[in-house]
Amino acid sequence: MAIGKITERVDAITEITDERGLAAPPCPRSVKIELTARCNFNCSFCATGYKLRDKRDMDWDFYVKLLKELKADGVEEVGMFYLGESFILDWLPDAIKAAKDAGIEYVFLTSNGSLSTPDKVKACMEAGLGSLKFSLNYADEEQFCSIAQVKGSLFHTMVDNIKAARGIRDEGGYECGLYGSYIDYDGEQGERMAEMVAEFEPYLDEVYALPLYSQADLVSLDEKDRGWDIRGGNPGRAGCMRPPVPCWSLFTEARVSFDGHLSACCFDHDGRFRMGDLKEISFMEAWQSPDFQALRQAHLNRDVSNTVCRDCVSYA
Asked: What is the pTM of this model?
């Protein structure tokens, strides 16, 4: 079983090619679907804990209809997450199977690992999950409690679940990549993470670093007080950083919130980046809507001062 590097897929999505660097780009290859907005963590670097919107689950009938539409439009990859923790859902394996049954080539998922129990992971792999990435954002239990703001025992549960996933994959012969990423909060976090990364290397196919995002400027002030290095926009991964403007996430990947809205932003915690209600208009109508085209054009002009993105990006 040949498992490729997840960073190759990440870099392919975060690159704005000539074909996609347009105000009205073609259908994106990848779409993240927020099966649930709920999360059992309250991480200080994430605005989820601010409760800026409702936290509910996606309607199943809408989800199935959306999958069929995405496939017909040409979407190749679907992520089973956006801003919530999808392992909260009992029906996560059913959602993965529905995506595969709809003809989606590659189904991927990112999780904090605390709820990804062996039985749930096995069910997801059996359903056709192609990639499971764990957010390894804590070097030890002390940092975990400080950042995730939940009880320390969940740190050890997370570690055990991540290690168990490898055995499940190998025993079942499932073609599911297992990966990890961690946030490089400052110039020292990489060194803090060295022991944790070494512990997970036998169990994961690849581990890589991410910069600390401003999350649409929602958490910047809190994290600056910690002395952390915050990046505007979404520059991708630490090993292949992209410029904040134009922001790739407007051009190459779509996100659908649990309540059916297409969002222009990876961190739309309060709904200000909504580009269309997919319960009322089609996916491609929203993807190429006048508002979305105007926002993309501002990015292509490298001047977002009068847009909803103005507080998020940073300028060199």
From this structure: 0.94
